[in-house]
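Handoff note, outgoing to incoming analyst
You'll be picking up this chain. Sequence as last confirmed:
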Amino acid sequence: MHNMARYFVFWQKIASRLWQQLVRRRAFFGMTVLGLVLAASIFLIEPKIVGLVTRNEFLQYRERVRQHAREQTVPLLDGAREIARSDALIHFIRDGDVSSIALLAHREGEKRGINAVLVVDRNGVALSRSYAVTQYGDYTFQASPWGDALSRGEEVSGIDRGVAHPLVMFAGVPVMDNGEFVGAVVTAFPLYDDYASVFRSTHLRGGEHVAFYRRGIGLTGASFTDQADRSAIAAYLNSGSDLTTCCSDPELLRIHDDVYLIGNIVFPGVREPAGGMILLHPVQSRGQRLGMVLGMTVALLAALSYLAWRRRLTLLDVRWALFFCALFFFFALQIILTVFLTRQGFVRVMDVPETTSIYNSTMSFGPETAVFELNSEHRIAINVETGGERVNAIRAVASFDPSRVAAVGVESTDSLCEKGIVLERTIDNESGTVSVSCGLLGAEFSGTDVFVRLILRPLKAGDFTLRFAEGTQVLANDGLGTSVLRSWTDSGYTVIAERSSASSGKIPFTMFSPTHPNRERWYSSRDVGVSWLSRPGIRYTYAVDATGSEVPVPVGDSSLEVVGLSDGAHMIRLSAWKDGIRTETAEIRLKIDGTPPEGFMVRASDTSVVAGDVVRIDAAAADNLSGLQKSTYVQVDDGVLLPVRLPVSIPFTRKGVHQVMVRVFDNAGNHADATTEIHVRSRSGFIDRFLNELLPTISGFASSFL
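Most recent structure output, in case you need it:
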């Protein structure tokens, strides 16, 4: 009790001496002026500090991360070279010993810490995939952007879309036997969550995060361990997000309670950019500043307690107390200004509503397109990307031509369906449909995964198509079973009758478009690239559509570019000539829609409302070619561009003029934007009511007499 009383008396003395010093030296006025100067300085300078000092530091750091990403292909290339020099591998490729190749590829990849090893023969036929041993027999040279270089016996490396994965870091080298090209080895890291976490722990400092994305698809992997944060970044990096196609300068972004400086690092790809990496660099958040204030408070109390323990109080002690109080005031002001700047939109708020479905899930087949051999079973995955939405039930209905392909099974090993309960698994080869339904009881899923794999057996040479039919759904875990499937992508495949082998040396005559690979998908680009595996002594010509004239291909070329095609469906036909006689023909079909949706208008239930009111937003647009996507994107002010189903109800709680931008996409990826303004006035306060309600009324009444 005696110590507590002494401590209380000390506090009385400290308060008295502080007040005397403030009054005697007129420090109160000085502290007030200092506080106002600090407030104005922080208000004016803090954005500049974040925009200049942190921006410059971040740009330098981003360049280092970009270099790290490029350097990651070096061990992949070294590993591919070592595997390709294996005498055992060369022997197995020549003999077509698929099982031995699979065992060797798995062992060599595991020894070098490489996730995926692909081995192909001289014609590009997949002999083994270490990450999917049951998936082989497809022609990878024609189905990948890097296959053309490998088919010519060249080394290639980089970051691009894969055959079985949306985005991969890869390296490929030819397999040579006494100067003869007999095959190729490709080593890769699929850019999923696992690799993002490894990249973060290896190359980033504490607090930074990375997120990989594929253009047109969205998030493929992120280093966030917190599921809510990962869902938020997945929602932001949707396929319609501007962040994946712009933003060379960093921006500030808040994901829940953390503020990040973000920047886009685009991967160039072999032919064109396929995706990139978002670098998230943390900046000082409100929580950190609060911690600093608490730390200063503890330091102040500790200093005063030390003075009380010494039982004396000097003028120097008072000055130190003033110094600690000034620091406390400064950091407290920082918190207030951070809140103010956030509310004013300087820090963009990225909070995905917990109870709002964002309709961001997509479904696709993998591989999206491929060249298969006849009379072999092939596995095609049904991929699900929830785009930040939490789901607990999925149903896929796939349709096909039963005269061209037969479904022989549904495989759920290492898939999302294996983690739940299979509710339906129906194969009907008479009507050409496969229906699979799975549910997650007492659980939910958010992210990217394989739903199931379809096992198909081609019945004849030619083309066949896989389509998602009515009844395909992704249901949100919201208690209502809301279908949040935004879009799906159908796929087309080619079947070759002749069986390839490394010893025969015969190359199937096929043509592939690395720019427009899927004949069932609409593309916005009117310039089409085409490649094929050329044969010695053969001359080639091509024609566009049935009415096009034959155009000769320069001797030695195995690729061409057709530019300026019009909107609509097209066919490019390639002919092989020997001694003036047409020996073979191949063709690809594609669909082009380079025109944005037309007649786009936004309608609001009210454009002048009171704070707290809810405005109903609707829109109308048309696209007579590829058609419109089911979801529409909505952005309020500088917030998140999220896909929703119209009409949507948006609450406005802050007064002022708010911009509501609505974006629609057609199925080729073209978009159109329309904006409307919502004027929000305050609910209370005489001045606000006078300015917002009474004054306009009086002005309107007076103007009627003028």
